[in-house]
Fold these 4 entries.
Entry 1:
Amino acid sequence: MRKHFIYTLWGIFATFVVSAMLAFFAIWNGWIGYMPDIEDLQNPISRFATQVYSSDGKVLGTWNLNKENRIVIPYKKMSPYLIKALVATEDERFYEHSGIDFRALGRAIVKRGLLGQTNAGGGSTITQQLAKQLYSEKASSTLERLLQKPIEWVIAIKLERYYTKQEILALYLNYFDFLHNAVGIKTAANTYFNKEPKDLTLTEAATLIGLCKNPSLFNPVRYPERARDRRNVVLSQMVKAGYLDHAEYSQYSAEPLTLNFHRTDHKDGSATYLREYLRKYLMATRPEKKDYASWNYAQFVTDSILWNTDPLYGWCNKNFKKDGSPYNVYSDGLKVFTTVDSRMQRYAEEAVYQHVARYLQPAFSKEISSKPSSPYSDKLTPKQIKAILNRSVTQCERYRQMKEAGCSAEEIHDTFRKKIPMTVFTYHGDIDTLMSPLDSIRYYKTFLRSGFMSMDPKTGAVKAYVGGLDYTHFMYDMVSLGRRQVGSTIKPFLYSLAMENGFSPCDLAPNRQQTYMVAGRPWTPRNANHSRYGQMVPLSWGLAQSNNWISAYLMSKLNPSQFVQLLHDYGINNPDIHASLSLCLGPCEVSVSEMVSAYTAFANHGIRTAPMFVSRIEDNEGNTIATFQPRMNEVISADNAMKMLTMMMGVVDNGTAGRLRYRYKLEGQIGAKTGTTNNNSDGWFIAFTPQLVSGCWVGGEDRDIHFDSMSMGQGATMALPIWAIFMKKVYADVSLGYSPEVKFDIPADYNPCYHVGSGGEQDSFEQVNAIDEVFE
């Protein structure tokens, strides 16, 4: 009987062993449960954040999917403390097993499973934990979790076959989510300690490894004392494993928990507006007219031009990976190397903030503080202001959500007028207040907006890009997306058309007010300056003084349609520019990036260079998969470009941009143009040196938000100082290589004021012609 009983036990045991072997064989081959294929095992982490670099090698920020801000780094770039702390705490015999630690597993089964000792430790190895993180869904019950375990064991064994121990440790630390958008050890080290993983101290490494047990429970930001205790547990485990002695433990465990916490967010970092612009630019799809509203047809035209002419636009959907799928900036771990210089970017951001936030905004806030119409002009009626605000309401996210939820017009109306607690932006920090959504819309309109861009005229490399003053609260990009009337900054294009039609800077025009017929109606342009009224003045003087009468007279002698075509040649893509005499005063809407790019023609021998934002793109293995070259087109001849140079340098030396010399003490050769639109709605300044072309716009969110006085509202006051502050900082940084000593490529004996006669002879400098004589 006893013998029969023993045979029965052995039979049961054998059946169990055979069943287990069959089960593991089935799991191994994927017949039971989920088993990743070889390719998946060889590439277990499928989502990597794309890193955006400056031209001088600084990480500007990342693009990621679902906050998986993971940047993979190799084992050799991790602190040895991290490795030792991880092994000592999570898997002391890591280097001795092949994926499963049977001794630890047996201990866990007996002590935790049979004896109920919760402090007996777990049986999962680092490799098993990695398998769980990579391939196991969150279990909904204990039974489901028990069924997942055998699958994880098999995957762990397979991982050990494909990877070295160092690679497994690197995979584990690169994959783990350390909370606060810190996915992976590189982002975690930066988030909690503002360091690279290789630079972590012993206590810092122990703090991060302590999170591996339960990141929410031991969150060092919310529970610093609990996190410190857990860190010391990790240190004690390192003593047990022989990595530390007791004296070292006593020393390090007594240290306070010190963080340098900075939450990782795509809104943080440098060049935020540019990074967001590039993200959409790279991921753009082929434009389809049906996807654009009828009122947005101009954008469809612009996007179509970009799709066909710019390799960077929609690059991800024009290029494909080895598997045939398009690239994705959120998950493919690309490295995008921009042309932006991190130092120049910082100077540009500082210049915009210094002038707009610290000087213009206080003056503007003071001016509108006593206005019932604030922040709008007194010229608007209450009805007009209400209409503008209602339009803003219908464009905001709260309105769209309520509309989609089926709320009635009355419910939406009441919601937007009911005061609620909210946090609002100020330049002194966010504040908590009680305000209705409608009042908050009006409040945010009190802030002036700005856009600034700087680029190399020869290569097109964009060196600095500031789309606004605070991306978190003012996300609309005023460099590339925003278009505003350009005012007098359009005049150099008009004068260049005149040069192309045989004029010279010294040709004379009547400086007096005249009336012209525009679209069948009389049009009489006004001029702010009556200097030399009634005289015949050179065109160079007219441009330097930004004289509207000279521009209108000149336009009357040229072909408006030819002018529109020239504007397009300059890279101004707005299809809504209409040919008319009044176009000479800049009523058309253009972006800052288009204007800066257009002015490169004056500094580059008549050749306009398109903005180049990215120099190259690498894949997640460091292979260069795309390079980008300057895109250029000739707009005007080299000789006429030199004529324009002499005139635009006159704007600085003897004209409306003179304060660059007498107030800001900027030296060297500078060509420039100021611009101010009706009612001071827009302040512009575009200027260039032989090495840089930069431009700036300042104004309100709506055109009816502006300074009342010309002294504060003109481009020379609103925008010029930003350029001046930026250039002074650039010149002061000798490491950048920019100098006011560099000169334009103009021959020493060049004479801009000549006409070529029918016999080929040149008129002397003194022989100038009235414009009317040219057309006789």
Entry 2:
Amino acid sequence: MPKQQQGLTYGQIFKTLGASIREFKASSLVTPLFVLGEVVIECLIPFETAGLIDKISLGGGFGDIAPYAVTLVLMALVSLFCGTMAGITCAKASTGFARNLRHDVFAQIQRFSFSNIDHFSTSSLVTRLTTDVNNVQQAYMMLLRLVVRAPLMIAFSIVMAFVTGGPMAAVFVVVSVLLGFAVFKISLTVMPIFKRIFKKYDRLNDSVEENVSGIRVVKSFVREEHEKSKFNAASGELYHDFVHVERILAWMSPLMTLAIDLIYLFVVYFGSYAIVSSKAHLMGVGQMSALITYGFSMLMSLMMLSMVFVMVTMAEEGARRLCEVLVEKSDITNPQDPLLSVPDGSVDFDHVSFEYSKKAERMALKDIDLHIKSGETIGILGGTGSSKSTLIQLISRLYDATTGTVRVGGHDVREYDLDTLRNQVAVVLQRNVLFSGTIKDNLRWGNQNATDEELVEACRLAQADEFIQRFPQKYDTYIEQGGTNVSGGQKQRLCIARALLKKPKVLILDDSTSAVDTKTDKLIQQGFRSYIPETTKIIIAQRTSSIESCDRIIVMRDGQIDAIGTHDELLRTNAIYRETYTTQNKQSHDVKMSQMDEDQKEADHE
């Protein structure tokens, strides 16, 4: 957990979440006022009703009863108006707050660097944006209405009970204190369980996301039953925790019922005795009726308050998790006076080392000293784990170097405006991602103002236009989420076309042609030379055929540069490159070296 997330106080949580209320402050402030009006009227109605009952019991006529009836109707209408308005303003405030909160969390995630995102799993961020926001919304709605209404109703009911029934109302105080203590004890018991539940929600969502994204692999290895057992295990843990919570919370209902019955029994017994013994001088039937009503109101409010306490307890963990995202500071930010243009595509690594975290056992990159001229085509080759992708991620400042300096266009990448730098350093990542929408929509991620002609030109250079034209809807073909309705090679070519539309100073392909055939790969590189000759091209590849024609090739091993040279130079001098080439081309090194020697002799003879 990041340092910023640890030890958040309630004050920090309220301040952080409160910033998302914004334009809904008025609705939030008005709601408690309407609730106050509703509670006051509801507490006066039994008192007025008691007078009406007493008048009827004394044989009062229509003229005596009519003022009470009119007053009660007016009070009921005012109470209805206040309750309705409280509901409307509360709904507006809570849903608006949730909308703003969801927006703020999502916007914060967009500002994160890769290292910030590494602190949170994808499934956890999804849970926070959905379940946690919904829980906080429900808690906020309850805070605006029920948390105001319940205490006021309890307090006013007890006061009016003393006004109506005198010392007999003391039983209300005793019962409410005992019941409140029991509710508080139950809520404290379930609080740590709710905290565990949210962590298990993350694991459940992680299992779902992993399964759905890798469903083809699951089916190809016939691992459906294994995945179902994994999901059932995660779901089963949630089930047992919720059952445990419900068993504890189930005590609230019988406790409330017992309290209501005790008050009812006490008021009816002693009230009836007072009425009979004093011949209605100490207490009338109306007063006893009002006392019973106040007792019900008080206990129902106490039950309501207990529900709110449980909901707020559950939402408290969600609020804390949301604040963890909102207070997380991005490791990569703009400088005070950023550069707004990139002069050229030159790239320099001056003794750069990098580690993903301070806790890392080893450096991912060690003392990289590399200088690339603008317009050069550079190939990068190395085994799995040699940190090829890590190297290029420092260029677009997806991570910052731990030591040393990375320069683009002669300037430290930390001096640039982030948008400016990333618009001029286009990266086609190893995992190609297309978004739901048409092909045109996806291509215009590279340039939202691109014309249809520019889209077609970029696709021709990326060798994508041919298969697009075979679709019935052509460039208006709808791409499903994740690009599931196009092949891997088609997806790669669309992503390359999208990057070409940016016309960047530096174009990086991170193993982005692995799913296309060798002929298409060479045609794509020919397109690069004709369309963006001044752009620096950096191509990470596993196939030597993809980088043979590069100006220079970098061979990496264990986070370090093992060798730099042309294709022919590395075949002669570097064992890693030579072994890779020989293995892929299925011909011995001796045969290839013999061919090269003969070619050299012919050249010398000529």
Entry 3:
Amino acid sequence: MKFGQTLVQRSVPKWAPYNVNYNELKNLIKERTSAGVAVPVDIPAQGKSRWEELDNLLFNYLSAEYDNVTLFLRSKQGEIERRLAHVEKQIGIARRAVQDNALDKPILQARKYRQLAKDIEEIGDEIQNLARYAAVQRTAFRKILKKYRKWTGSTSLQTRLDVEVFSSNKLRTDFSDYLQQLAEVKTILTDELAGPMLTGRRRETSLGQQQKRVSASTKRSPIAQINEALLRGPLAFDAAISTVPYGEAAGSAFYWIHPDNLDEARMLLLRHMRDPAGSATHPRRNSAESEEARKRVTSFSDANSALSHMVLFDNSQRFIRDTSVSRPSRIALSAHWSRDPEAVVTLAGLSPTSSAGTILTVSRKALGKALDRDSLASDASNEVRAIHHYLSEHRDVKPLAEVCMKRSRYIGMNNTNEVANWATLDTAVTVAPVQATEIGEPQHQSPAGDAFPYAILHIRWEFARTPTVVRAFDESHLVERVHDFSLEDMAIHSAQKDLPPPSWHSVLEKDIRKVPLVPRLSRFGASSRSRLNASDAVGLSSGPSSTEGRPDSVFSAPMGGQSSVTSDDGGVIGTPATASKPTPETTKARRKKRARIQVPERESRPSRYWNEFDDGDSDGNPSDEYVIYVDPDEPVFPGAETVSKAFGAMYDSFSRGTGKLISWLPLASTRVGHTADGERAPLLADQLNSEGDPDSSSSDTDGFTVPPQHQPHKSRRRKDGPKRQSSSGYRPHQLLSPRQRALERTLFYFYSGLLALAYVLLVMSSILLGTGRRKAMVEVDAGVLAGVIFAEMCAITAVILIFMRKQRLSVLHWGLVGVMVASVVVIGVALLALMFANIKGATERKGHSKLASG
């Protein structure tokens, strides 16, 4: 699967708008480097590279992308630092309240504790997402430069970016300091404050009350042995975690990690475990314990930064035939050394009845002579003599392989004397044949060694079925769990070529990288999974090989810098015969139980609005949905809605009435589908008028529709008249919507009011005409004329409004309206005739009076 297609899925989906523009940059390189593309380029001068112009262009683009990514990272780091400071402040306040015995509000204290625990988990998720985002962006830069080198053959752009841009190391992917600080805060919260804040009782400070009785069996338990080796140093811890037999309920898990996922996997590991070489000592410890802890921290810090060596001695045939599961390693003798002055040697009990081993500490300079069975000095120490005696008893035990790696050690955050877990992470693993002269050399690394392509993570737990850290890695896309695997088994099979291939050898042939799965959203927008943290579900393989980039490049995978993790039998280790096979009674009881599928409870998704900052890139969150919401209860001025509806109804009514009146005029009207109101015309008006059946046409014949021929206006009006009337009105028994009923009612009120107003005007004109004075005849006639004209206009408007109604009216209704309109017209004409008759009579009387006076 191509990287560009899964970039959003690989990265943090909610931060997709801040990803590198990988696809755009790849297309730009492809266009500028493909043959036959018409792109204007300058003719290179003498001594000038043909790709210099493209180098400068890509340098500017990549520099800008790098600045954008690092700016986003810095903003997120600042946010995490502020949240961590706030949590530490709240933890300090809670500690002071516990010390002062100010625990008088148990409900609020318990609520505060849960809030602090929730904040710590959210900060851990944010740090994990930040590591995932940074790792993906780093991979994107490396891949785009690899494509450029592949298509152009030029390395100048890579070199220039390494020196001028990438050397700033702003795009770091290691945020272990944040997780270490978070682990300290979480330890204080769970160890010191959990009891007082949840129970309301003061923490007991008496040393006698704090100490618990430890039985003799507990002192020799696997947890006690490994913790004792942890105090002795990192090499003793390495030997103990592999050779101490399992307890009653214990197990191991081995994982392989691809180099691209190493930093993110380390962040996930630090979410659940802590590095003994991390922070300072706990403040509760006394001075002697603090000094001892500081020495241990220093020794682990030096061991993590140095190469670790391990040489393996055994009989290869006995080793591959051994199927015991009593401890993680089946090796007979192993020696561990680094640059520390002391080395550690483990001797396993090879008898069938004994699986216990011995861990011896010898001088690193004397390690080579101690492992040589033919030479024994007279002044040798007791440990060296014990090693010689072991080699003399087991003559078939011979040197098989030497392993060189960089190892990091981790211990559980909440380890106790009863439950504990530990882990080792090996990177840059190289296997080579044993060279006796180089045993004990701290910086020795054989040039003929074979590099293992992945890093190896080993997690061991005691008195627990499956720890949280193992479940997190099993659900993660970052690792590949490999069963029946161990570091010693891999080294012996790599060095001894004549041995049959192991069961895990087929896993090396496939690409273990996977694409994280994006949670599916339900119809209501809620995730189908209860929670999606950094350990996403395992996805599909991503495809190409892992050897990408130049070894000396900042964004290239270093040689041997890979990480991998494998898993052993992750089950409970106890008696092999009883732990592996269930009893018949248990199997029968299980068959009687009916399986139940537990569906995770859906979390309600908070309401949010679209904004350009979070939702600016539609490709970033394709599954997210948003709505534009308008509050219907928003306060407005009184009557605004009623006025708006009334004016809207009036406008629609006048528009329809005007169109109907214009259609009656003796002009060439258009067809129904080509009316002036194009927005309201049906899309298939031509087909409806020509065919008459809107459902008769199909998609197969739409392209062959013949437009109707033009017809004369009169024949079309006679033909389409009934259809227009039937289509413009409602059916006789059709149920009208509230809007339609309101429109019909409004029209009825309007033309009824206009007719009533016309009669009022006519009555007033009649009164004025009958009682007007002769001296003010001009004013009286003007008033009568105005009243008659306005009354006739009201009658005409009423006629227009009644024709605008779509509801079918009864004959009585039409008769009443017709009589009233005719009465207005007749009365108006009569008033005008009477007015003109009065004017004529007054004029004649005035003429007679003048003649009589003359």
Entry 4:
Amino acid sequence: MADLKPLGSSSEPSAAPSIRSQRNDETTATDDAEPKDYATGLKLFTVMLSICLNTALVGLELGIISTAIPGITDQFHRIQDVGWYGCATFLLVASSSSMWGKAFKYFNLKYAYLLSICLLIIGSIVSAAAPNSASVIVGRTIQGLGIGGTLSGSVILINHVSHPRLHPMLIGIWTAIFIVSTILGPLIGGAFTTGVTWRWCFWINLPLGGPVIALVLFFLHIPKHVKSTPATWKEILLHLDIPGFAFLLASVVCLALALQQGGQTELWSAGSTIALLVLWPVFTIIFFVVEKFQGERAMVPLRLLQPRVTWANALYCYFCNSANYQIVFYLPIYFQAVRGDSAIISGVNLLPFLAFFALGAMVSGAAVGKTQHLQPFELISGLLTTAGVALLYILEVDSSMGRYVGAQVLAGFGLGLGNQIPITAVQGLSKPEDMTSSSGIVLMMQALSGTYFILIAQSLWANRLISHIETTYPSISAQQVIATGSGANEIRNVFHGAELAAVLDAYMVGIKAVFAFSLATAALTVLIALIIPFKRLPDHREKKLEHSNKADETKEKISSA
């Protein structure tokens, strides 16, 4: 007490506020770094259950259509719409993901997420009750719009609701559930189409989606530190970037139509095919011009692509998923069409890829969470995937089980190891205000990968098959093979003896072309991984200890003062 100076002293008043200000700053920093309302225990389990059930619903819907398509075409006799049944959903997922990212920024996260689930269910009802082929496509489009929001929202919710140190593990679980449900989808779709009707591939979303809506509505609580960005309705509409969305969608549709008809229903030299191939880059350029003028309002703000960690991870995600989608869609064709397996046996034969993809995702999540490193796992992922796809490329009609199982083990584990790291990277290394938009960009690239590379694979497979038959087996009708191929197991009912051997040979030529392309894109991910910055995720445990130490030092200064 004897050391205290009068209130009017010139030295102490300036020092004390400084110490108090420092203490308040440290306390605030500690609170910001460690919010008190992250979900834990039962609350976190319930939230993750909601997200994972919704993710399983989305994964099933993306995969279930593949085995339902023959039943749909049998009823509506629209073989030319086969491509659209599959890619209509991916088109909307790709073009709307970034827009959803902006929506989650400006609207209530919980209710925007619920809206995406409702759109998925509405689209399912439209497709299930469809009186014609066009209605099925419209329903699939609405589903794609809902799925774009669901996938974006799931990752953003994990980021906001759980502690940052849990993100790699939780995103790994989320990714594993997504891929498992995606691959189980064709098995369930085949069972419904064969045993009941293809319409149940869509009706099933009603009893599955109802509990998901209830869980989200009653158990999903957004932490207090997560707040929507205030804006007027006019500002929100401008920030949603409707023109950018329209031109991106138009560019993807043009490419999809060109790849669907080129060399199959129309010649590559046909005027309509050339026009579509020209419009694709034109609309893409216009999209980037629009985004440039939109600035911060763009659904893909171009400044977000300037950091190497963002654009390199977005490219990695884009090319990594090429091999993923092509294996999922074309390895079953190898099993069913070439080897003559049933849909169920084909699914069983695909289990090594499924299991090791999930294992790779889990290992990646745990390893990243432990080491905070990202780039090394992306590099290892690319190397393993390249080796696995190379083994798939050398498969033959009569390859042994060991050859296709071993290839799946390498490719599946490699893809799983690196698949979710790009989203983890932009989540952990972006500025907080850019996190949702950057996440939307990466998810958009993932969906664009599904759109482009499924269509490219279809074009490669069909064109190589047709070319090989016309040049090597001119006595066989290539168009008859294509028409029969929509139901792969029917090949052996239509062709016999030498003709059957020729058709299987042509199938292998087409499938090898797909896997050769997958091999090229897998090798490209190795090169892209070398470009990705060698950065660690922030270690929040170290930050917490640092803040604690600083707080202790502050207390000592206050005591000494």
